[in-house]
Amino acid sequence: MLRAISELFGGIIILLLLSGSAMAEVPSGLDAATLDQLKKSFPSSAAQRAAINALTANDLHKLVLNREMVNRHNEVFNVKTEVKGITDQKSTGRCWMFAGLNLLRPAARQKFNLENFEFSQSYLFFYDKLEKSNFFLEFIIETRKRAIDDRELQDMLEEPIGDGGWWNYVVSLIEKYGVVPKELMPETENSSKSNRLNQTLENLLRQDAADLRKLSLEGKNVAQLREQKFEMMKKIYQLLVLYLGAPPEKFSWRYQDKDSKIFENDYTPLSFYQEAVGLDLKKYVTLFDHPVHPYNKHYQVNLRRNVADLSDMNFLNIEINRLKEFALKSLFDKEPVWFAADVSWQMEKENGIMAEGIYDYESLLGFSFHMSKAERIAYRASSANHAMALVGADTSKGKVNKWRVENSWGSDTGDQGYWTMYENWFDRYVFTVIIHEKYLPAEVLELLKTKPVILPSWDPLAKEL
Fold it and tell me: Which helix (H) or strand (E) holds 404?
C-alpha cells in the first residue's frame, strides 16, 4: 500500500517536473525560434492576402462598417426638447463648456423670442484659463515642500491648465462670472485652436512653479509667496487678453426677435444670466456609472476643480439603468441632459451613429474586444473623454430604443450635427449624466448628505474631459 502511494506521488512529482520543464521552454524574449513559430501561426491563404491588400490600402472603419446596421438606422424620436443650431468647439477640448452652455440656450431663446441664440464660449474660456492658472499656482504654494516627483504634483505639472473640465467647472464659472451673448466676445484664432495658447501659458506656469519653489527654499513664507503669485497672475491676465481679447464687464445688447421687434438693454454678465436663464445650477446633481467602485455611494475626486477656493467635483455612483431612467424623466419634461462618454469606440461619423457593433472588427481581424465596462475602465482602455447633450429619445412599449444627441463638432458630421445613440452604446460607453434634483428620488438625494469617499486625481474616470 505504502509503496503504491509512494509510486503514485512519485509519478505526480515527475509530471509536475515535466510540466515545469515544458513551461520553462517558452522564452521570455522573442528569439529566432519563437519568431518562426509566430510567422507560421499566420496562415497564408487567398482570404488573408485579400485582407492584407484591403487593410494596407484603406481606412479600417470603411472596411468593417456594419452595413446592415446602417440600413436599419433611422432618426425617428417621439421625445424631443427644443433645440436649434449646432455649435462647434473646433480644435479645442471645450466640450464640457459647450455642452453646458447648450443646455441653457433654449431658455434664452424662449426668454428673448429668438430664432437662434448662442452664448460666448470664448468669454467663459478666458476665465477658465485665468482660474485654472490661479488654482495651479496655489497648489504649487500648498505643496512647496513636497518632493518634485510627488504623484499629485507630477499630475498637475503634466497639464497645468488644459482645456478639459467637468460640469462643476461650468457651474463655478457661470456663478462667478455670468455669461454674455456670443457677439459680445466672439471666437478668436486662439480660442478656436487652443494649442498655441496652452503651450505658451503652461510653459509660463511651469516656470512660475519653479520660481515659487525656489523662493520657498530661500525661506519665503506663504504670504510672501502669494505676493509673488499676484505678480505672476498679472502676466497671465495680460497674456489671455492678447490671445482672447478683454472680456466685457458691462455691455449694451441690442437684438431683434422673431417678430422683428428691436430691443436694447444694459447688462453685466451676471445680470444677463439671471434674465436670460436664471436657473440655480447647484440644483443639478452629478451621477456616475463607475463600476470599478461600489454603487450607491457618494464620492469626491481630488484636484478636480477650476476655481481654487471651491470644492472638488463630487458625484453619486449609480447603476447605468438608473442613469437612463433619470435622463428620460428630464427629456419628457423638455429638459436636455448634459452627459459624458467615451467617444473612442463604435461611433460612425457620416450618419452620426453611436451603436455597439456598428464596426464589425471580428469578421475582418479575427478577434473581438470582450472586456467588461469595469475592466475597460480599470485597465485604462476606456474613459470619459467627451461631453454632449441628450436632447431626445425614441421609446416604444416602455423601452428606450435610442437617444438623440446634440454634439459640438459642427454641422458637417451626423445628421447636421445631431447624433443617434443606441441603447447598447449608452450601456457600454456613457459614464456621467447631470440631472436636476427634482427628477431624483429621495433615497438618491440622501446619498448627497453622506460623507464622500475621496478618490485620487489619477482615478481612471477622473481625467478632465
Answer: strand 399-406
